[in-house]
# Entry
Amino acid sequence: MLVKLDAFDNPLPGAPECERLEMRVLRRVEVADGGEYWLAELLKPLPVAHDDLPQNITHVIISPRFEGTTLDGAPYGGRAANLAYLTNPAALNAAQVGVEDVFLAQIGLAAAIPTKTPAPAKKSGWRSLFGLRRT
# Structure
């Protein structure tokens, strides 16, 4: 599933010019608090200029902003979500991700990106509207 994250509360740490991130959700990850957390790969690496972070962020963790909510079925415009940069590459394949593996970056709105375009309507003409056939 492809997801976009935008409408950040504040500029992203190390990348203040970034207004939107697009990512591919890879899998759900286990975290000590048992909440809903998802590992995602950014479609384009995010270059960051921050002393405590790698130069390019390639993976992130996203989660619902509020306890008891989910990112499934986000309404138009998105649903509030937490964004954390994955800073420990070893955590990519780990069963569990801890606070030491991430850098909490920001809060934004998450929404699915449609991957299929709707098929154009068939042009069947006025005859089909009235159930008429050619003779």
